[in-house]
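Title: Comparing notes on inverse folding

I've been comparing how different people in this forum approach sequence design from structure. To keep things fair, I'm posting one structure and asking everyone to reply with a full sequence. Here's the target:
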């Protein structure tokens, strides 16, 4: 042993320390070939370049060898085909191999059976697959300037959901953008308008409406929000008490015998309010009149629509500006009714609310929306809000909590101020922000849980689906 040659002794030491590293530091051994392709206009220029390359490598104590007689194999192996035709390899441990892969990208690729396609990763071009049901809170927001592709994104997700899962889908559509797609998939479009024959009873309720013993507490929140929409100036405490008292009375017969024909109508509530002694009650009744016997009596009817279709779209376009917010609120309530029924059937309900900022302006309505946002998860609901007004989310701390209760956020092109807000609330780096600055329609940033990746989606335009989803006036099918 004493007369072992020096180099052999060194080899033994090296091997032992390598083995030690592999065992103790969770390293692996890789066989790697590192190829550099050089080009020159002629032979002498090529030799020049090769000399320079060798010089650079030598400075870092590396030796480059020419692939004499193997140029073709060398070129083919350096193409990104994952095919090494060169028979020279050397061993490297994980740490040393990693140096040669300096470009790390975050990927979103869920292997869940219900994961949906959200575009391509703009950095790596890998497919983005995500399953919102895997998130702590599957609710989501789609944010972007007009024309950035918010509705388009929602429609793409709706198509994928219909084809991949068994979930139900409801859309609150203030601009009548979704009906071509909904009709094509055999869904039901419910037109909410003063001339429509599809009626919705604003007083609808079912016994599962709330998790508490009393389904009325939630219904009362909703009706208070409805009254707030009628009184643009807000409700006084006295008015709130009167309304609350009458709500309890009006549902009495339903609660003692919960049959559909015992569900009250708005006119029943109106009559009750009128009989209250307070002066405020008379004011309330007069304000309510137009919704009961006047022009806006649309919601004072028994529900005639059937929400059993897997895909339902409420079209609110024909309600004027004044009724639109009320309409959206009523639709939220109908959606909640369906979500509670679906929970018993163990079916998830996905809801899309376009122009959600219209529900965040007034206090009571905003509160109802926020509470709805928080409740949905427990009931197997998956809410998605679409809006161009990111600033509205800062109006109050309660509204900001929508951010915290949404683990899926899709950011399309953003205006300057909105970018700053998002950067602050969602911890987005300046580099990432560049993907939502002047970005083309259908591309931006996708935040799923704690992972944020830039994405692109160029939906092929010569397809039936594109024609059903576009909102560009010159592309819309007649
Ligand atoms: N992923 C996409 N691929 C191709 N075109 C898109 C994509 N997303 C949006 N667009 C184009 O942009 C237009 C506007 O999109 P839309 O969703 O209606 O905008 P928004 O709802 O944000 O106002 C669409 O009609 C479509 O032509
Ligand atoms: Mg839109």
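Reply #1:
Here's my take.
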């Amino acid at each position: 042993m004493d007369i072992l040659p020096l180099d052999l002794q060194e080899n033994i030491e090296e091997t032992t320390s390598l083995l030690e590293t592999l065992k103790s530091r969770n390293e692996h051994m890789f066989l790697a070939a590192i190829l550099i392709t050089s080009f020159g206009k002629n032979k002498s220029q090529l030799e020049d370049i090769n000399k320079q390359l060798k010089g650079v490598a030598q400075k870092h104590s590396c030796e480059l060898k020419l692939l004499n007689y193997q140029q073709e194999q060398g070129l083919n192996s350096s193409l990104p085909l994952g095919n090494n035709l060169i028979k020279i390899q050397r061993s490297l441990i994980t740490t040393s191999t990693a140096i040669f892969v300096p470009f790390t990208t975050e990927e979103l690729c869920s292997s869940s059976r219900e994961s949906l396609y959200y575009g391509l990763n703009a950095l790596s071009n890998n497919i983005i697959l995500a399953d919102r049901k895997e998130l702590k809170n599957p609710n989501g927001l789609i944010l972007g300037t007009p024309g950035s592709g918010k509705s388009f994104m929602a429609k793409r997700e709706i198509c994928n959901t219909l084809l991949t899962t068994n979930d139900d889908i409801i859309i609150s559509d203030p601009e009548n953008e979704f009906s071509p797609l909904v009709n094509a998939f055999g869904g039901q479009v419910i037109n909410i308008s003063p001339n429509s024959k599809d009626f919705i009873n604003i007083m609808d309720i079912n016994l599962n409406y709330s998790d508490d013993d009393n389904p009325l507490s939630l219904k009362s929140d909703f009706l208070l929000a409805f009254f707030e929409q009628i009184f643009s100036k807000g409700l006084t405490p006295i008015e709130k008490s009167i309304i609350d008292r009458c709500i309890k009375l009006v549902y009495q017969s339903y609660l003692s015998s919960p049959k559909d024909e015992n569900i009250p109508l708005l006119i029943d509530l109106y009559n009750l309010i009128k009989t209250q002694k307070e002066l405020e009650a008379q004011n309330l009744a007069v304000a309510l009149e137009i919704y009961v016997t006047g022009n806006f009596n649309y919601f004072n009817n028994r529900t005639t629509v059937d929400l059993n279709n897997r895909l339902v779209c409420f079209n609110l376009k024909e309600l004027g500006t004044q009724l639109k917010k009320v309409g959206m609120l009523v639709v939220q309530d109908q959606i909640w009714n369906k979500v509670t029924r679906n929970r018993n059937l163990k079916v998830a309900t996905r809801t899309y609310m376009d122009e959600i900022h219209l529900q965040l302006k007034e206090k009571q309505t905003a509160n109802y929306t926020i509470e709805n946002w928080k409740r949905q998860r427990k009931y197997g609901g998956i809410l998605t809000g679409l809006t161009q007004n990111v600033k509205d989310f800062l109006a109050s701390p309660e509204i900001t909590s929508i951010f915290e209760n949404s683990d899926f956020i899709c950011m399309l092109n953003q205006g300057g101020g909105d970018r700053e807000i998002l950067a602050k609330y969602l911890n987005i780096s300046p580099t990432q922000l560049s993907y939502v600055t002047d970005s083309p329609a259908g591309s931006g940033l996708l935040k799923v849980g704690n992972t944020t990746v830039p994405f692109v989606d160029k939906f092929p335009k010569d397809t039936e689906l594109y024609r059903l989803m576009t909102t560009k006036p010159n592309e819309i099918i007649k």
